Fold each of these.
Amino acid sequence: MSIRFTARTRRGLLALTMAAGLAVGAVGCGGGGEDKHPEPTSAASKDSGGSDPSAQQGQSQEPLAELRGPDGLLFQATSAQRDAGGFVTVNGVLKNDGAKSAVIPSQMSGDETEIIKHGQSLGGATLVDSNGKKRYYVLRDTDGRPLTTVGLTTIESGQTLPVFMQFPAPPTTTTDVTLQLPTFSSGTIKISG
């Protein structure tokens, strides 16, 4: 009974931490300036006049990076937010720019048995810190589930799916990392926060 209670408590704390991190990422954005290329998390709304930011204002208009995959699949990283808990949450959209529906490649889940048994996900994603010579893998909860969007199977032509991935944070001196998704091209993204 004690082990079961502890596991539930850990899952609850992890879920609470993730929810708080996502809320901070969505709400903790400053007002936009006159920059042509705004910071990833700044709200580039010139005509809002300082109103409260909406959830969509937390994402930049221009993606941080575009990673091209097979069959017309495209991943656009819209934000990479560092939080105080030592995590980096990468948000983005998975799009099908192809003429027909595309099956999400199973390789995107990675090849670790613990992650694969929880279904199709973005569990194979990594962040690479070239300067620090380190690779960061997607985090997992206490049951081994990857802290990413799961249940990805097929995307219809023209469809867009919002997705996220959570990684351990590199040192605060590291701001530029390479995002890698299996079967997709790589792209450099800037971590904010």
Amino acid sequence: MSDANDHVKAWIGREETIRDSLGLTPARLLAATLDDRQARFETGDAVPVCWQWLYFLPAAPQGEIGPDGHPKRGGFLPPVELPQRMFAGAEITVHAPLRFGLPAERRGIIRDVTPKTGKSGPLVFVTVDYEFHQDGRHCLTERQSIVYKDAGRPQAAGGEAGATPSFGASWSRRINPDPVLLFRFSALTFNSHRIHYDRPYATEVEHYPDLVVHGPLIAVCLADLLRVEAGRPLSFFKFRAEAPLFVTAPFEVVGRAAGEAGAELKAVGPGGVTAMSASAIFA
């Protein structure tokens, strides 16, 4: 095990640079996917926080796709042997907004690879730092946390969503994560992880009760709740995944003010369980 750990730790410091033109079409399609009929994006407008995930997409050839639908490991990300991969959270700092329609660059570096042992068995945490540059400016800093783990026992899907009354939400929205929504988001982010569209794979191989809602999709819904309801740009957004959500039931995204300059948010799944928590600071 130590030899395997040493092998994946050798990926610390590995770098990747991707350039993109930040065209308007992906943003307009995401707005349609989120059923936002008011959004009007034009060249030069600020890219909403989390919408940078529509861009800088790694273009792995079909012959380099692994059995889970992700690119085979050992490229930019380390060759971790554990079968399940989860986008566990991120911190995004906005120094200056990215702008639609202008060339930009994302520079990534593997900051840390940490093997651990949890209640469910071995885990590997991978920390990836990204810097986004445009027009000579450092616009965004994003730190992502990715977790690899063993496929667990089959999980229960749960029932209806319900927000905990004690949260005192000022803003809320109900999301129906049907297979069409998941498919459209997978297509927009070029995410071919099979747990989001291949039900037999999700249930029989990774032992989920049904198709899994993307962690980034939940985070986009949380940040977008602030964009639509609060109407204020963000200087910081942080989220952490706490439990998976599935296509078997709707979920709620809820938020409330935290002082004059911030907000707290949750994605609430069946039984009032918090699936994702988040915090934000307004610019």
Amino acid sequence: MTSHASHAQTPLLCPCGSGSLYSACCEPLILNRQSANTAEQLMRSRYSAYCLGHYLYIQQTYVPDLQASHPVAALAEFGDAVSFIGLRILADTQAADQVHFIASYLQQDRLEQLEEVSSFEQLDGRWYYRNGKLIAHPAVKIGRNDNCPCGSGIKFKKCQHQPLSQ
């Protein structure tokens, strides 16, 4: 697994954007100390796991019949190629087993937005991710002298989210 700067140390605040400390938010789920109480909580923990490189957790939170079709190496290949910079929960889908969100990430010099209405299942009292309906967004090219879309206020060329290949 390739290590990004954002993977190197555990942040004080949870990457999921809850405003809570990581140790009190997604970490207990990712370390299997507790289970998610809601589909949204599981989705947030999966996002945090991508941010921090916990790809085995992501695989294990797919419904059991889909876990083998999502190998850890493939999850890591995607996760290590991007830098996640934000998560927004858009709306309550009125269904306890769905979450509508946008995960923003940088891939090379492009800002990408993954918008999805995710479907989850609860099996034996535990939440799992089943699948999602994607909503397409065009990628936005970021100039080296543009401010980084992560919100740091730093020019993209100097931000921690600068692609490793530049």
